[in-house]
From TrEMBL:
This is Putative ABC transport system ATP-binding protein. PANTHER family: ABC TRANSPORTER ATP-BINDING PROTEIN YTRE (PTHR24220:SF648), IMPORT ATP-BINDING PROTEIN (PTHR24220). InterPro entries: AAA+_ATPase, ABC_transporter-like_ATP-bd, ABC_transporter-like_CS, ABC_transpr_LolD-like, MacB-like_ATP-bd, P-loop_NTPase. Residues 2-240 form the ABC transporter domain.
Length: 240
């Protein structure tokens, strides 16, 4: 589904160059749940932003379903994002002035979906994510867990091929965090492709594969089963 070859990202500031990514190569299969771990500043969020077409690479190749993404115009990137990618953020990124229903509906409006079809899709995903009873509430009236559920519903309402999650439990307590991770695990079982950035070893245990990054490079890759004993313990947040 995704093929990354020698991907690099360099930030330039006056005479200083910062290598956020250094020739990263990676394949992501359809239906895979991939967790990306590493210390702050290792490049994991930059990598996720490039996958989501929110940032551009300085060099290398990024193919999404055999189509090269590097060099696409901003308009074409926007089209790919709207049709194929759902985002889940640590800070939820819900619009305070809109109800839960309206927040979830927004991506469908951007995609030009008719009013009747939007109503059907929003109601379906709210039932699936168990947030329908909060449809008329505003974000500030919700708990953190409910806000993240609304954010997950918004990410899924367009039925994206790829779900990108950036620290999805970072602002949640352990109970709400577990609920969100169980939800992502269920989506994975149903065939969703998920790439998640996390500091949490416990959360990474839900993934089928984990890559560890340091200094803009992948230095280790392992399957979740290899670290079963670690994930069974309380979250130590190894990389914070």
């Amino acid at each position: 589904m995704i093929n990354i070859q020698t991907l690099s990202k360099i930030y330039k500031s006056e005479d200083v160059q910062t290598h956020a990514l250094n020739e990263v190569s990676l394949n992501i299969k359809e239906g895979e749940f991939l967790a990306i771990m590493g210390p702050s500043g290792c490049g994991k969020s930059t990598f996720l932003n490039i996958l989501g077409l929110l940032d551009s690479a300085s060099a290398g190749s990024y193919q999404f379903e055999k189509v090269e993404m590097i060099g696409l115009s901003e308009r074409k990137k926007s089209d790919v994002r709207k049709k194929n990618i759902g985002f889940i953020f640590q800070n939820f990124n819900l619009i305070d002035e809109l109800t839960v229903y309206e927040n979830i509906e927004l991506p469908l409006i951007y995609n030009g979906v008719s009013s009747s079809e939007r109503k059907k899709k929003v109601e379906e995903i709210m039932e699936k994510i168990n947030i329908a009873h909060r449809a008329k509430h505003y974000p500030q009236q919700l708990s953190g867990g409910q806000q993240q559920r609304a954010a997950v519903a918004r990410a899924l309402v367009t039925k994206p091929k790829l779900i990108l999650a950036d620290e999805p439990t970072g602002n949640l307590d352990s109970n709400n965090g577990n609920e969100v991770m169980n939800l992502l695990a269920e989506l994975h079982r149903e065939g969703s492709t998920i790439v998640m950035v996390t500091h949490s070893s416990y959360d990474a245990g839900y993934a089928s594969r984990i890559i560890n990054m340091k200094d803009g490079e992948i230095f280790n890759e392992e399957h979740a089963s290899q670290r079963k004993d670690v994930f069974a313990k309380a979250d130590a947040k190894d990389f914070e």
